[in-house]
Amino acid sequence: MPSTPPPEAPSQSPGPGAPPPPPPELELYERRPDEPPWPVWSAPAAIAMGFALGIVVSIFVGIIAQAGGSSLTNPTPAVSLISDFLFDAAFVGAALYFGGVRGRARPSDFGFRPVHLATAVGAVVSAGLGYYIVTAVYASLVNLHGSDKLPKELGVSTSTAALVGASVFVCVVAPIAEEFFFRGFIFGALRRMRIEVFGREIGTWVAAILTGILFGLAHTG
User: Fold this and answer.
1) Mean pLDDT, range 156-178, rounded to an integer
2) Angle at the Cα of 201 (from 197 to 207), degrees rounded to 5?
3) Domain extents in the chain
4) Residue (of 53, 33, 51, 49) closest to 41 by Cα position
5) How many CB atoms lie within 10 A of CB 83?
6) How far apart are CA 194 and CA 190, in angstroms?
7) 3-state SS string over the chain?
8) Rounded CA separation 101/98 (Å)
9) Which pLDDT band, with edges at 50, 70 and 90, does 7 fall under?
10) Which of 3, 16, 139, 188 is the Cys-Cys partner for 36 at CB 3.0 to 4.6 Å?
């Protein structure tokens, strides 16, 4: 006579007053709600791609300019401006590419978020004053008396058109592109690192320091 299996015990579900189950442990690179979707590895990948694309487009600009009579060792202001613009655009393109690796990125993922006008004005004024104060103190401590060579390389003293073009590039194009890449993309990727010291999460601080170092290295020389 076949034996009947013993009845299974009914599954017990927690009652309305029972505590919720413990949340799963945070993974090394798990995304928080305020973090962008692209992973940490995309930061060095975007830097490598940006440099590679920038070098390639600069070479093409140089070849075309040389075919038009420009010198590779002493390019015209127009050639320098076009080369610099495309070099910065290469990094923006790399950020947009890797920003879409894990789905469609939102402007807020790159740091574009609405703020109150008073907050924005206060931040700009305080940041500007802080920059000039720190720069003056640092220059006096290390006895710096240099000047920026970029305006001269862009030919600001050769023509009014070169002056206008250099002003637009230095004051508008380059800052927007660099902030978008470093502060918007690189910082967003690096702050997904999970680093704890004495039980305190410091990943955001490490990401800010690394982003600042990378930004400084990009402007070395």
Assistant:
1) 85
2) 100
3) 42-114+152-218
4) 49
5) 19
6) 9
7) CCCCCCCCCCCCCCCCCCCCCCCCCCCCCCCCCCCCCCCCCHHHHHHHHHHHHHHHHHHHHHHHHHHCCCCCCCCCHHHHHHHHHHHHHHHHHHHHHHHCCCCCCCHHHHCCCCCCHHHHHHHHHHHHHHHHHHHHHHHHHHCCCCCCCHHHHCCCCCCHHHHHHHHHHHHHHHHHHHHHHHHHHHHHHHCCCCCEECCEECHHHHHHHHHHHHHHHHCCC
8) 5
9) low
10) 188
Residue carrying the six token digits 């995309």:
42
Give the pair of three-digit tokens for residue 192: 């997904």
pLDDT tens, 96-106? 999 988 777 88
Per the structure block, which two tokens stand in for 32? Answer: 């928080």
Among left, alpha and beta (phi > 0; psi -120 to 50; other), residue 188 is: alpha
pLDDT tops 90 at residue 129: yes
Q: Which residue in 40, 23, 22 sits closest to 31, CA to CA?
A: 40
Which residue type is seen at 80?
A: S
Show the tokens assigned to 155.
């030919």
CB atoms within 10 A of CB 214: 17
pTM: 0.74
